[in-house]
Amino acid sequence: MAGYRVSIVGATGAVGRCIVAVLEERGFPVRSLNLFASSRTAGTTIPYRGDEVEVRDIALEQVRDCDICFFCATNQVSREMAPVVRKSGAVVIDKSSVFRLDPEVPLVVPEVNPGAVDGHKGIIASPNCSTIQLVVAVKPIYDLSRIRRIWAATYQSVSGTGHEAIDELREQTATVLSNGVPVPRVYPRRIAFNIIPHIDSFAPSGYTGEEMKLISETKKILNDEGIRITATAARVPVFYCHSEAVTVETEEKLSVSVVVEALRRMPGVVVSDEANGYHTPVECAGRDDIYVSRVREDIGVDNGISMWIVGDNLRKGAATNAVQIAELLMARGLI
Amino acid sequence: MAGYRVSIVGATGAVGRCIVAVLEERGFPVRSLNLFASSRTAGTTIPYRGDEVEVRDIALEQVRDCDICFFCATNQVSREMAPVVRKSGAVVIDKSSVFRLDPEVPLVVPEVNPGAVDGHKGIIASPNCSTIQLVVAVKPIYDLSRIRRIWAATYQSVSGTGHEAIDELREQTATVLSNGVPVPRVYPRRIAFNIIPHIDSFAPSGYTGEEMKLISETKKILNDEGIRITATAARVPVFYCHSEAVTVETEEKLSVSVVVEALRRMPGVVVSDEANGYHTPVECAGRDDIYVSRVREDIGVDNGISMWIVGDNLRKGAATNAVQIAELLMARGLI
Q1: Is the ipTM of this complex over 0.90?
Q2: Which residue of B has its CA nearest to A294?
């Protein structure tokens, strides 16, 4: 029977459910689909091609009985299980941050650095959501001129944290609207009608883990440690899609029209068509493309291009990119 | 009788009401208070020192019968009436953007450029809300070293647009929570659970009016047209307080501790005390200080300092700054 035996570890999470949906939507050749989660949510069923697939408790023996294993559980689960699953001969596509900066592990966005999968050693990492949408928009510029510097400020939705954060935003918002006092559980501060400039933990430098992921992963994916990158990452009261205000400083002067043309040719990018058009998170939710708008000549730096980048963090920022990595491996005969 | 005859034009708006409250809180020496608004809201009463002051329809004859006139109505009202009120001998403190870049008009943030009021010609402009909190945080750095470049991304609350926008956010949010489809009236797109990178109108350059205000006003207030500044301004679903992610590139290298010390000495600034502490909009609402946190050495540029700046756009960003300008004029014997 044709197709691949696919396991998903962390299937009941926001990303896991989305991977199941994306596999079906894109008609990925799945011979058998095995879904796993922690004992807390095992037993749930998830719809797939007209069936309800039952999610089982994570058990190493069963998980590794596959050709492709998507990991979208915690860092700890990836750290412990991914090497064992890989050793059994399956290819691991890992959404955690554990292996992303490991020099032995390709960190892949298929439209950006497909060649990185060649010679993979059984684990391929998918980048952080905020990194993926940045590099998809920046790559066509990089292909026109080396990039000196990138400044980014992010406006990140709560679905990046998971189901419980989506619930927290909804519940806190209802509480505030009825004049109550919301109590933070998932986030360190109230998220309803608020902005939290704190995602992941703080490093001694004062940068957060989320900011450092954006910075380090972008350099690795573009294969250029010389780019100077800075970022501020903030959580905003939005359910789906991250937005980013970005300035790119290039070595050579690029006109806006040349940049827009390059972005239009980039697979997976939609550039706003109208003059002064722009995209907002609610319009881009549920879509796989990265939406780039407000492309303008930056007036704060020579050779600068500023833009506004919106992408669905669960789709291209997580599930779709992971499935595209599997498609890439298939297309290159690496699986 | 001691004190000043004070008029407020636009008294029923979010800023106008706040000016009345701030005059009372700060014990500004008001001999008589005359409140004006358009015919749409005239007749309303506003509490002041235990009284209810009735708001009258704007009538030039009555407005100009004062020593100090605060304008916080539309640009059109300021454009038409402020010169006439000034000619009658009153000092105009104008919150509109009409006169801000006029070389004859001082643009003043009292902690930052108090000397600019000397030799004023009867109209003093108060800057845009997003500019005020930026320059208050940037001035102590500028005093340590010339600034080459500022990069800012804003997260601006709806109260900057006025009462109707506060209502729109509340109503749209309730609609979304009950699975309805919200209809934008005040903003060009839905604001509930969304981000709109579009404040004021677009210039041919692709920058918005709001972004250009931040850029041009900051240069004028710091009296340095050589600073390179860029900005992206976005509206966020927050009721009160603007937040800003800012990187400042200085000519000389400054350590974080020197910058933090300078910020601590700056009047009107609160710097986060805890390691990795930070401020969010809901904590800063209703306060007059500008809150600076996440001060860190920027890793994207040499001599860079990054920080997170939060301020209440109705208080220091508008009403409080206007009243402080009146206090400054008083202290300098200019009124």
Answers
A1: yes
A2: B206
> How many whole angstroms separate alpha carbon A207 and alpha carbon B296?
7
Between chains, do A206 and B294 touch, taking CB under 8 Å as contact? yes
Residues A79 and A155 in one domain: no
Task: Determine contact, residues B4/B302, Cβ cutoff 8 Å.
Answer: no
Chain A residues 7-66 with a CB less than 8 Å from chain B: none
Average pLDDT over residues B72-100: 97
Q: What is the secondary structure of A132-159 as a DSSP string?
A: HHHHHHHHHHHTTS-EEEEEEEEEE-GG
B18 among known catalytic residues = no
Pair (B11, B149) in one structural domain: no
Contact status of A224 with chain B (Cβ, < 8 Å): no
Distance CA A151, CA A71 (A): 30
Q: Do A228 and B151 touch (CB under 8 A)?
A: no
* A149 lies in the same domain as A295: yes
Q: How many folded domains does chain A comprise?
A: 2
Q: What is the CATH number of the domain that holds A44?
A: 3.40.50.720
- The pair of three-digit structure tokens given for residue B134, joined into one six-digit string: 């930026």
Confidence of residue A174 (pLDDT cuts 50, 70, 90): very high
In the sheet that holds B228-235, the strands lie side by side as B228-235, B147-156, B242-250, B304-311, B290-297, B269-271
| pLDDT of A273 over the 80 cut | no
Instruction: Name B160's bridge partners.
Output: none
Q: Per-residue pLDDT tens for B19-66?
A: 999 999 999 999 999 999 999 999 999 999 999 999 999 988 899 999
Same domain, A149 and A117: no
pLDDT tier for residue B1 given thresholds of 50, 70 and 90: low
Instruction: For residue A230, give the CATH number of its domain.
Output: 3.30.360.10
Instruction: For residues A172 and A30, state if they share a domain.
Output: no
- Establish whether B163 is a catalytic residue: no
Mean pLDDT over B305-314 rounds to 98
If asked whether residues B140 and B123 sit together in one domain, one would say no
Residue A1 pLDDT: 60
Looking at the structure, tell me whether residues A103 and A159 fall in a common domain: no
CA distance, residue B109 to nearest chain A CA (Å): 23
Residue B224 domain boundaries: 131-313
- Same structural domain for residues B166 and B301? yes
Choose the catalytic residue: B129, B241, B279, B284.
B129
Ranges of beta strands (E only) in chain B are 4-9, 30-37, 45-48, 51-57, 68-71, 91-94, 123-125, 147-156, 228-235, 242-250, 269-271, 290-297, 304-311
